[in-house]
Write a structure and sequence with these properties.
Elements (H helix, E strand, L loop, with lengths): L5 E2 L1 H8 L3 H9 L21 E2 H15 L5 H13 L17 E6 L7 E4 L3 H9 L8 E4 H16 L6 H12 L1
Antiparallel strand pairs: 1-2, 3-4, 3-5
Helix pairs in contact: 1-6, 3-4, 3-6
């Protein structure tokens, strides 16, 4: 997978759409939990280098904030969980490996560690089924779309086809089997 490649702040800003000022603010506030793995920075002449996992974490947090989640901590917690943890069904920084299908990332009280995958529009039906159970107040995003957009932008920025969304998923999940 792309875990050995690092990106500059400018590349992260271009790939995620986050303003550089916001990114710097988030770093100063230590909201990017994976920032311990970010190389460099902190002193003059040392440029920060971000991993693919950091880029996905930043993109997911930004997408949750753009979707209306005003509390930054739950947005960054959910983004951190998505980008840096996984299990036998979903790898870190990747949506579930099922196409067509959507991986939804939910954040809010009681939702920060929850991911859903369902084919096509059924993911929204799955979320709606949980509302009667009293689990409301979540902001959710289509994590698959965010992943695809970030990978496509990285491919444009670097000129490297290994960042095509399908290529990233293929490399990640073929190595996991």
């Amino acid at each position: 997978m792309t875990n050995h490649i690092t990106f500059t702040t400018g590349q992260v800003v271009a790939a995620t759409g986050v303003a550089n000022e916001s990114l710097q603010n988030w770093l100063k506030r230590e909201l990017i939990v994976g920032q311990k793995a970010i190389e460099g920075g902190g002193s003059k002449g040392r440029q920060r280098r971000y991993s693919f996992f950091n880029v996905i974490e930043i993109a997911m947090a930004k997408a949750l904030i753009d979707a209306g989640l005003t509390a930054l901590e739950p947005a960054f917690h959910a983004a951190h969980v998505f980008a840096h943890t996984g299990d036998s069904r979903r790898l870190p920084a990747c949506p579930f490996n099922q196409r067509p299908g959507y991986t939804l990332l939910l954040a809010g009280p009681g939702w920060a560690d929850t991911f859903f995958m369902a084919p096509d529009a059924k993911a929204l039906e799955l979320y709606a089924a949980l509302v009667p159970q009293g689990r409301i107040g979540a902001t959710f995003i289509n994590a698959s779309r965010v992943f695809d957009n970030v990978c496509s932008r990285l491919m444009e920025i670097t000129g490297d086809s290994q960042f095509h969304p399908e290529a990233v998923l293929e490399a990640a999940y073929s190595g996991a089997n």
